[in-house]
Task: inverse folding
């Protein structure tokens, strides 16, 4: 391997490149971060995250995206090791969010002969983020443009708003590899196994994949559908996303999940109960509702205390299930804050096509039910079942029949869909 001669400004020099050959002449040169607490400074990532980057070692060398600054040391070691003294000919920029573009300026200093291949919107963002002159090393591409690198021909497909307006994906027509940018990504660091078929994805990764998709690009279902439509016209043998495992088997399983998520259809016919409770009385009503549903044979009921669950998880679960029970105390003459935050976040993510039941609570002037209903009515195709259950401080025996009636409506809805 070529001896390193540059000064690395990121973390430390590990002296341990960790690139991986993933397909003939294609290498993984990304890295994982298990230190970061909040992705985008908002989403908890207890399982870490990977910043994927790929290097094609053809007659010309091509790097597809860079990585987050946090893994810059490892990334540059991987790039240098794979190049092994060869010059870097091209950098393809599929996405300009800093978790993938942060190292562009440093890359240009290390590999000054590189040509940047990207679309006009992304080029403008490079100029916005960095003080570098790219005019004499930029090759601008539009929908359907191609780049021949020797054995490979790369085609560029625009994917606006998946997840930013400049996003594009790159399709290797030679080996049928789709470099899918943020699409098909997931939270979660890679633990040596970089292929989805090397892990139990359904058991260990799907929750994070759903939470990533819904919270990062969930708002842009139409645009994701457009990309899926374009992708369906391509023969794809491998999907290389910018986060999470690479897909080379059972691609249909993962694509189908995205079809469902992006079309706002529930992934599971089932009941999710989320409550916001100050002293436990609203929680008790939610627990009772769960028991009534279980007695009616409803299985796999999910229940969360909104005060103890990150809203990104709650939003993700709301996208998962067909029926949602929302129970909230009244607070400041409105909805208890964690439930109010959830409803605003659901609206921001274009949540739709679901059935909801409402339980409110208030000691002197219950307001939360009415206000939850108002927020839900601002969303698309949300069916609110029956009358709201209104508790005055605590549920009483004479309200059990109302609870049973609401439970029956939920069960009937589940059985009829
Ligand atoms: Fe992983 Fe939109 O960046």
Result:
């Amino acid at each position: 391997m070529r001896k390193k001669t540059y000064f690395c400004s990121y973390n430390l020099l590990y002296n341990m490149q960790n690139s991986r050959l993933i397909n003939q002449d294609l290498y993984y040169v990304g890295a994982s971060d298990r230190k970061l607490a909040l992705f985008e400074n908002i989403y908890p990532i207890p399982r870490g995250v990977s910043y994927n980057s790929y290097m094609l070692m053809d007659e010309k060398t091509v790097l597809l995206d860079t990585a987050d600054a946090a893994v810059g040391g490892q990334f540059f070691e991987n790039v240098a090791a794979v190049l092994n003294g060869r010059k870097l000919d091209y950098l393809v920029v599929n996405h300009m969010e800093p978790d993938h573009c942060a190292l562009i300026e440093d890359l240009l200093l290390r590999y000054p002969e590189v040509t940047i291949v990207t679309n006009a919107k992304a080029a403008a963002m490079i100029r916005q983020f960095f003080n570098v002159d790219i005019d004499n090393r930029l090759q601008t591409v539009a929908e359907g443009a191609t780049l021949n690198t020797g054995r490979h021909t790369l085609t560029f497909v625009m994917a606006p708003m998946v997840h930013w307006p400049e996003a594009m994906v790159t399709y290797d027509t030679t080996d049928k590899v789709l470099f899918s940018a943020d699409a098909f990504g997931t939270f979660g660091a890679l633990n040596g196994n970089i292929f989805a078929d090397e892990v139990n994805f359904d058991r260990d990764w799907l929750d994070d994949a759903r939470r990533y998709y819904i919270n990062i690009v969930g708002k842009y279902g139409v645009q994701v559908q457009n990309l899926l439509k374009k992708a369906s016209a391509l023969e794809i043998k491998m999907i290389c996303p910018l986060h999470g495992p690479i897909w080379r088997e059972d691609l249909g399983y993962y694509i189908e999940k995205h079809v469902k998520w992006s079309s706002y259809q529930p992934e599971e016919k089932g009941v999710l109960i989320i409550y916001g409770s100050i002293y436990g009385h609203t929680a008790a009503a939610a627990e009772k509702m769960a028991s009534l549903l279980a007695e009616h044979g409803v299985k796999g009921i999910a229940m969360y205390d909104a005060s103890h669950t990150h809203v990104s998880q709650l939003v993700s679960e709301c996208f998962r299930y067909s029926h949602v029970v929302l129970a909230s105390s009244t607070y400041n003459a409105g909805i208890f804050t964690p439930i109010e935050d959830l409803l605003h976040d659901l609206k921001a993510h274009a949540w739709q096509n679901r059935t909801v039941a409402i339980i409110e609570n208030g000691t002197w002037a219950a307001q939360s039910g009415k206000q939850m209903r108002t927020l839900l009515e601002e969303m698309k195709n949300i069916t609110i079942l029956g009358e709201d259950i209104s508790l005055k401080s605590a549920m009483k025996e004479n309200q059990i029949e109302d609870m049973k009636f609401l439970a029956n409506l939920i069960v009937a809805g589940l059985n009829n869909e």
